[in-house]
């Protein structure tokens, strides 16, 4: 009898679970997403770092050095520039993470047996990429230097005595000591902002529907947009308070610098907040219960956490995950926060990321408001 009662309770609970098919589907999908994200995105094995080339020599020796860096598969030279200022602009905008500078007398110095210096500039705002690029730049330069030395010795019939023909000088910009907190703290600003905006907004509206109070609001003279604004505004204030709180703690406790304009950072935060509030509103139109809203919110948080470059560099991810990261608003906000805080970037340098957030804000918030209004009607 006891076993029969126990089986009956288990059967009842199983039926209760399977009635809400959406929760069942989410429960099965979530571990699969986590497995793929942890398996492919959680890596620091950096390859094909976007790199600029400032070749002032254009000699055969310079081309040979460039070929050595390309063959190592650590650097992808996708920009050719004509000044150090162009390098600075590209690094501030996030288009490249480093730059190889070849001086105008590089080939001539090697030809007469003198030591030739080249410079490698590295963006230190992402310590993981910077550390890999720093080690690879020096190692490849030393390997090429040894190869050139052997050629020079063979030409002179000597077995030794020459100094190293190539001297690779490295410079790390924006975070010379490669402090990891300088990378993590700015990334957490967007993560906290998104988590609060999405989870609290969605749960708040679903809670009204569960209690039946949203129907009472609908029959009042209040308009749908007034209801939406009234519901989300308190969470805007709460989210902004948390952003300022994280920034202050990061600057005071972890010594993260604020080189750029705080006003520009807060304006970008408002733009990003508009997009993630739209995500919360959209979830509120899909979820029937607070539990379902929380699970849907977590389903959105997971890809953002792993693919937005908060903990793991996007450059280390497989190409298909890098492509997926372009549809995640948090990626662009992280680029903006780090560029402003660590590099002192202005609007000109971050305009690409700002434009992407504008598109996301219009599409996500506009679509969510239209769907929410229809649910009210």
* Approximate strand percentage: 5-15%
Strand order of the largest sheet: 2-1-3-4-5
The beta-strand count equals 5
Order of helices and strands: HHEHEHEHEHEHHHHHHHH
Share of helix, binned: 55-70%
Tally of helical runs? 14
Counting helices, strands and paired strands, the structural category is alpha/beta
Arithmetic mean of pLDDT: 82
- Residue ranges: pLDDT <50 for 5 or more in a row? none
End-to-end C-alpha gap:
52 Å
* Biggest sheet overview: 5 strands, mixed
**Judging from the principal axes of the Cα atoms, what is the shape?**
elongated
Radius of gyration: 27 Å
**Domains, number:** 2
Descriptive notes:
The protein is an alpha/beta fold and 377 residues long. It has two domains: 49-173, abc type-2 transporter like domain (abc type-2 transporter like fold); 180-376, no CATH class. Helix content is 68%, strand content 9%. Helix 7 packs parallel to helix 10 (262-286).
Short description:
This protein is of the alpha/beta class and 377 residues long.
List the topology elements.
Elements: H1 2-19, H2 21-41, E1 49-55, H3 60-71, E2 75-80, H4 84-93, E3 98-102, H5 106-111, E4 116-123, H6 127-156, E5 166-173, H7 181-211, H8 213-218, H9 224-252, H10 262-286, H11 290-307, H12 319-325, H13 329-343, H14 347-376
Helix pairs in contact: 2-11, 4-14, 7-9, 7-10, 7-11, 7-13, 9-10, 10-13, 10-14, 13-14
List keywords for this structure.
alpha/beta; 14 helices; 377 residues; five-stranded mixed sheet; abc type-2 transporter like fold; 68% helix; elongated; single chain
């Amino acid at each position: 009898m006891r076993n029969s009662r126990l089986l009956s309770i288990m059967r009842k609970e199983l039926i209760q679970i399977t009635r809400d098919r959406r929760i069942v589907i989410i429960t099965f999908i979530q571990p699969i997403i986590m497995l793929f994200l942890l398996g492919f995105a959680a890596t620091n094995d950096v390859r094909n770092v976007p790199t600029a080339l400032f070749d002032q020599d254009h000699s055969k020796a310079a081309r040979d050095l460039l070929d050595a860096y390309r063959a190592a598969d650590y650097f992808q030279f996708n920009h050719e520039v004509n000044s150090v200022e162009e390098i600075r602009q590209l690094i501030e905008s996030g288009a490249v993470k480093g730059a190889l500078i070849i001086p105008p007398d590089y080939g001539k110095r090697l030809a007469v047996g003198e030591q030739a210096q080249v410079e490698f500039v590295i963006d230190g705002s992402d310590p993981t990429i910077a550390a890999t690029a720093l080690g690879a730049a020096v190692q490849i330069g030393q390997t090429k230097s040894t190869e050139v030395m052997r050629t020079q010795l063979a030409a002179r019939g000597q077995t030794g005595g020459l100094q190293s023909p190539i001297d690779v000088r490295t410079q790390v910009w924006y975070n010379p000591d490669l402090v990891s907190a300088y990378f993590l703290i700015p990334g957490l600003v967007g993560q906290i902002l998104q988590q609060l905006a999405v989870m609290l907004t969605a749960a708040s509206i679903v809670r009204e529907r569960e209690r039946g109070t949203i129907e009472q609001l609908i029959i009042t003279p209040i308009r749908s947009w007034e209801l939406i604004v009234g519901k989300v505004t308190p969470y805007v204030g709460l989210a902004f308070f948390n952003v300022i709180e994280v920034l202050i703690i990061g600057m005071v406790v972890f010594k993260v610098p604020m080189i750029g304009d705080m006003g520009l950072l807060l304006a970008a935060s408002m733009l990003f907040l508009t997009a993630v509030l739209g995500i919360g509103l959209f979830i509120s139109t899909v979820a029937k219960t607070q539990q379902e809203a929380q699970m849907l919110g977590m389903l959105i948080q997971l890809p953002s956490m792993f693919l937005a470059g908060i903990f793991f560099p996007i450059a280390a991810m497989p190409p298909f995950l890098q492509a997926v990261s372009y549809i995640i608003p948090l990626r662009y906000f992280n680029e903006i926060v780090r560029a402003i805080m660590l590099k002192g970037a202005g609007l000109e340098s971050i305009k690409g990321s700002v434009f992407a957030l504008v598109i996301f804000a219009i599409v996500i918030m506009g679509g969510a408001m239209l769907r929410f209004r229809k649910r009210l009607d």
